[in-house]
Amino acid sequence: MSAMLEVKDLRVSYGKIEAVKGISFSVGQGEVVCLIGTNGAGKTTTLRTISGLIRPTSGEITFEGKRLDGVPAHEIVTLGLAHSPEGRRIFPRLSVEENLLLGAFSRNDGEIKSDLQAAYDLFPILGERSKQPAGTFSGGEQQMLAMGRAMMSRPKLLMLDEPSMGLSPIMMQRIMSTVKTLQSQGTTILLVEQNARAALKLADKGYVLEVGHVVLEGSGHDLLHSDAVRKAYLGED
Amino acid sequence: MDQFLQQLLNGVTLGSLYALIAVGYTVVYGIVQLINFAHGEVFMIGAFGSLATWTLFFKGQTGLWVLPFMIIGAVLASVAVALLLERVAYRPLRNAPRLAPLITAIGISVFLQEAVRLFYPGAKSALPFPQIDLVTGAAFQVGGITVRRSAIFVIGALVVCAVLLWFFINRTKMGRGMLAVSQDPDTARLMGINVDRIIAVAFAIGAALAGVAGVAQGLQNSNIDFFIGFMAGLKAFTAAVLGGIGNIYGAVVGGLVLGVVEAMAVQFIPGTFGGSPWKDVWAFVLLIVVLVFRPQGLMGARVVDRA
Q1: Cβ contact, residue pair B191, A85, below 8 Å
Q2: I need a labelling partner for B136 at 20 to 30 A (CA). Which of B2, B129, B146, B214 fits?
Q3: Using CA atoms, how far apart are residues B260 and B250, in angstroms rounded to an integer?
Q4: So what's the ipTM on this one?
Q5: Which of B183, B192, B195 sits opposite A91 (nearest CB)?
Q6: Distance (Å, rounded) from C-alpha B157 to C-alpha B175?
Q7: Hey, where are the domains in chain A?
Q8: Phi and psi angles of residue B154, each rounded to the nearest 5 degrees, phi first
């Protein structure tokens, strides 16, 4: 499998504080790759840098052979890379439908309407409440909307930042199974999670981040059963 | 009763002018949280733009057909100046502390006034604005009320602009992009929205309406000078705050309310504190009272926010 996304020696700083201290990882076509780690490990910063919201201080990001570092965020979307941000960040005062249509902002083809229907098929609740302001939704519904919105750009690679944050176990299951569905439909997924168990279960590959470094990497299965991960992230002894 | 209706008409006329300018303050604030204090001057430039168009191409003409060209000239001048300001003065300060762009705006405001005063031929004193058939000239009577022709133009201009604006924001992709940027600029970028372009569009929209207001001002007062942007800008800013800054419909409502209150105060407040010398005082008293009891303005910022 050739790497679809390749991150090499990435360093990112906020002023004098370095949040990401030279990490490298890759995501292959069709894979689900997860980054796990505690708060402050640099997971969100890494995603925000890949999607162009933050400029790296050094390092390389390559997507399908094209350098991404230095490309403005609004152009990165058009290359086929969607980012569903931490905290969902739906547009609260816009309707569900308007939120979804904004996901397709970079597109000009005639199939936006049918993709809207596809999003409603994926998450029927969105279709039922398409005219409702998104801010009135529960956390789980907002997460569905955020994922549906990201899919509206027809991404080759979907980056999900903490999709399970603050959700009930049932809703979390629902979101994770959707991730699986999207993968089976051909979307490559880069998943950032604090819920290591759920993420590693469905990941082909995982990276463990600690204070800006990759400290461990391996297949989802291996990590799930490694002693280090079990102790530190799964609360087992 | 006639007196009341007369003042209501005068108030709505004045208020329409405020509203046209106020939209510019609110639309820019909604997107970049900047009070563009140079916006009053953008309005003034619009008035001079339409005068220049007439002087250069249509001197001596009074036919109504000239008016669209004068409006186009005004809008072009206003939009060009506003875009230039945004690019040269505000964009470099996008991430600076808020005070920096604010002071810059005040500086630009003085700069534009002086530039027009010094370089527009004859602008050291007031310049006569062209008289145009049907929209200027003798007023007519409807019942007991005197209706000035220019009033019809101003109110009509507000209605047309408000409808176009509503359509742009709610029915076009660019408008939806604007709403997204005003709610969450970073996430808007993730949607593929070019935030710099949206900001420029916001400045352009506000400037276009201010340009139309510039023409209206000229037709109504039959002359213009380099200082008209100061008071009009201040009142329009007041209207925008009154309606709820950041809310476009609020700017329209705020403008109309402010205009009507001013007109009514002139007519109906008796004694020393009545009459036109006090109208500005009452306008700002209204602002203070509204801010004390409803700090978010009449229409306010909507309550549903980031969940």
Answers
A1: no
A2: B2
A3: 15
A4: 0.93
A5: B183
A6: 21
A7: 3-90+155-233
A8: -65, -50
